[in-house]
Amino acid sequence: MHLIIFSSVLTPRIKYIFNFIFKDILKAEIEFTGNAQYFLQSEQIKISYGEKALGNEIFFKSTTLLFSNKVDEINIKTTLFSDYQVPFPVTNSLFPFDVFAASFFIVTRYEEYLQQKKSNEDFLASKSYQYKWKILDRPIIDEWALLIKNIIRKKHPGFKFHDKTFINQPGINFNIGANVPAGFLNKTKFIFSSVFNKENNYLSSKLDRLTGMGVRNETVLSELNITLDKTKTNPIFFINFPNVSNDYIKINGVSKILTNRNVGLLRPCASTKEKMNEIKEGLFKLKKILPDQINLISQQLDVLKFPICYLNLLNSGITTDYSMGYPDRAGFRAGTCTPFNWYDLQLEKVTPLLVYAYCLNDASFEHLSTDAIGNTIKDYSDAVKFVNGHFLSNWQLRSLSSHLKYKKLKRAFDEMSS
User: Fold this and answer.
1) Where residue 56 falls among pLDDT bands split at 50, 70, 90?
2) Residue ending a domain, choose from 155, 189, 206
3) Is 72 exposed, middle or buried (0-12, 13-18, 19+ CB in 10 A)?
C-alpha cells in the first residue's frame, strides 16, 4: 500500500515538494498521476491537489505558486493558523492555507531570490517572512508534515510510515595553519607572504599565542576526542586553509587526529569565477592532509547568496553542503530539519546538491549567559526531537577548548553532546 497523488498538471515544483514532504520527511512511498480515472479506480490511499476534490479522497486545495515556472513577485496574504501566521490562505480544504505552496516557498528560499533581484545586500533573519510570521524558531515544514501524517492515519489507520530517528550532529570548524618550511630563505618568504596577505590570520593567531588567548588545534582536538568517544555524537569537522602555497600544506598532527572523522571544506561559497577556483584549491589542500577521508562536503558561515553560491559549489564537485542557516541568529532558515536536495528556481529543477540546514551557531551565544545558552540549545533540540529530525549546530574549535574565555561554550557543547 502506498500513497497516490493526483494533480491535473504535474509540474516540477509539485513533484519536488510532495516528494520532500512524503518521501523525505514522512518516509512514505508515493506515486504521481494526472489521470483522474486511473486515480479514482486506484486502491491505494488517495490524495489530490487542485481546485476541488474528485471524490472522497484526502483533498488539499491549491494556489497558483506550484503551477508557475517563474520567480515572480508575490502579494503574500496570510491567515492565522494555531498561534502563528501562514501564507497562501485557501477555503474548503483540510488546512486553511496551501501547505505545499507554503513549504515550497520556504524551503527553496524563494524570498531570497526575489531580494537578489533588487539588491545585493545580505539577507537578514529579521527580514524573513518566517520571522514576521513567528515560525523562524521551529522546523515548521516538518511540523506541517506531521499534521498531514495524522490526517492520513485517522482516515487510514492501517497505513504504515517508515520510522525516522533523531540525529544530533554538530559541525566544528577551524583554520589549519601552514607548515613553516625549513631553511632561512624559505622561512622568510613564508612569513612575508603570510603577514602581508590580508586573508590570512597569521598575525592574529600569533598575537593570540603571545597574549595567552590562543589555542592549539591539536590540543583541543585530542581533548574533544575523549569527550566524543564517551557519547554517540559524531560531528563533522570543517577546515579552512590559509592562502599560502600548497607546498606548505602537509600531513600533520591534525591529520592524524581526524583520520576517522567526517571532514569537509570550510568557507567555500563563491560568488565569482575567481572565488570558485579557491574552492577547488581548498579541496586539493584537504586531499593533501587527509588523502583517504575526503567527502565532497562543505560549509561557509559568511554570506550565503542564492543561487550563485550553490551553483558554484555544484560546479566545483561539491555534493553536500551545511551552509543553510543564519550565522548570527538561531533559527530554521529553510523551515526544516530534514536534509533536502536544493531546488534551483532559475532552472526549475532539482539539483544533486544535498543540503543540511543548521539552526544554531555558537557566534549567536557570545553575549548570552550560561543558563540562556543551555535553554536555547534545549528548546531547539526539543523542537527537532519532536519531529525526529537532524539537530545541526555550528561551533568554532576554539570554543571547545579549556581556555577560561570559552568556558561557558565548552560546557554547553559537552552538555549537548552527553
Assistant:
1) very high
2) 155
3) exposed
Domain count, the chain: 2
Per-residue pLDDT tens digits for 174-230: 998 655 444 555 545 545 555 444 444 443 444 444 444 467 899 999 999 888 888
What CATH number does residue 265 fall under? 3.20.20.370
What is the pTM (predicted TM-score) of this model?
0.91
Closest CA to 97 of 117, 80, 113, 112: 80
Long-range contacts of 301-306 (CB under 8 A, 24+ apart): 301/173, 301/266, 301/267, 301/327, 301/361, 301/363, 301/394, 302/267, 302/269, 302/327, 303/122, 303/269, 304/123, 304/269, 305/112, 305/116, 305/120, 305/123, 305/269, 305/271, 306/109, 306/112, 306/113, 306/116
Domain span including residue 364: 167-417
Residue 163 φ then ψ, to 5°: -80, 150
Whether residue 149 is found in the same domain as residue 95: yes
Whole-number Å distance between alpha carbons of 356 and 196: 36
Q: Nearest 5°: phi and psi at 299?
A: -155, 140
62 Rama sector, left if φ>0, alpha if ψ -120 to 50, beta otherwise: beta
The answer to whether residues 365 and 321 belong to one domain is yes
Considering the domain architecture, whether residues 146 and 178 belong to the same structural domain is answered as: no
Residue 273 domain-assigned (yes or no) = yes
81 lies in the same domain as 229: no
115-154 pLDDT, tens per residue? 888 887 889 999 999 999 999 999 999 999 999 999 999 9
Among 89, 120, 155, give the residue marking a domain's end: 155
